[in-house]
């Protein structure tokens, strides 16, 4: 018995030593609150996306898209909620302008719905009502003194394209380019910041790998890689189109927004954990960022690991290859780096039990066991652990891996279930994440030029319906008027914007 106790004690001591060393370099990212302000040129904003706020799913010539279908099918979304009405921004966009002005933001990020503008991309006919809706919105945003930051594609693929072979059918590249052309030609004179895609990782992995997002397809070994390949080509086409045809006239910036956790080694004194963290990052953000920001091709470690896990008869890899001319075409197709960041994961090499627990394919190919520290605070969303130092970590990752490209954080925010107006946890989250961003800029010299809160108001949170709320403003989804009501966090963020960050209280006034 005594021996057993000694053994237990021994393991406790050993594991506590490991814990200390595990957080050694993470402690660099957890130092005290830092007072500092950002330059006037830094842009502060809020974010939304078409399907999450607009409603009017079948009005004025809009066609059905994959999220309409997914929601209407039933069985995919909590409580079978849909975006049929959502915040009704299609009709109430003037109310959105009112709260944007109230917050004092410098930019407003929203997305265009392909299905409104080109309802049938196989014919390419433009729907004037869809163009007019966005022209009114963009004009009003500009008149309010706010810069629109426009996402071309935030997940709402026209259903007809899904039925036509989805992102696997190469004709989608010309169809996407045509849609981008329509958007640039109609709105380009008013828009300074463009994004081609929101989170291709989520589109391909959650849509076609694990299938918890529309269209709900579960092919984790093949489709994410095949579809990502064409999405990258679509992105490059749109960027070149802007570069050759519109840049001289409009002088805007075109990029893509990538979502990523910060990937930290579980134990930073173990080289294999450090390596696992790098590999996880290359499989996540690097999958898209390496071709676009580095050399036109996937990260070498990703090519190696997918190859060795492919086990194909002919020895080929499940990861497709770019031709030499495609690489040249893709490399450098950016004007800034769009980053959506919410949380952090801990990394170590995958063991057999972990490999057996994940779907064979993308996740298994990575060979990294991803975990969360149980001590971290959790938001209402299952993936959203509150790890402020991860913001500083991921911004430094981008600085060192992508040549300190200018970054706009295009999303960051936190959830609850009830949408309380007294959202002190959201103030705490945003305050500490923004503070880490300010440290990254002022101490580490990361080239961050903008920050955007997800979201200005509670909205349709995809497979979670209206059960998880991210808003700075509360929306009552039982009230047909959908009034927008400021939470405490809205007034907090307004203050941060007015102060340009966190001025040292010693020098206020
Ligand atoms: C963003 O996605 C979206 O752009 C936005 O529309 C959305 O409303 C917002 O964030 C809040 O969710 O490892 O299987 O648990 C966030 C992207 C979604 C990526 C959840 C990670 C968890 C995948 N994240 N996902 S899983």
From TrEMBL:
UniProt-listed SUPFAM superfamilies: (Trans)glycosidases (SSF51445)
Alphabetized UniProt keyword annotations: Glycoprotein, Glycosidase, Hydrolase, Signal
Superkingdom as given in the UniProt entry: Eukaryota
GO biological process: carbohydrate metabolic process
InterPro entries per the UniProt record, alphabetical: GH, GH_1_N_CS, Glyco_hydro_1
SUBUNIT field: Homodimer.
Family, per entry: Belongs to the glycosyl hydrolase 1 family.
Name this polypeptide is given: Uncharacterized protein
Gene source species: Littorina saxatilis
Lineage: Eukaryota, Metazoa, Spiralia, Lophotrochozoa, Mollusca
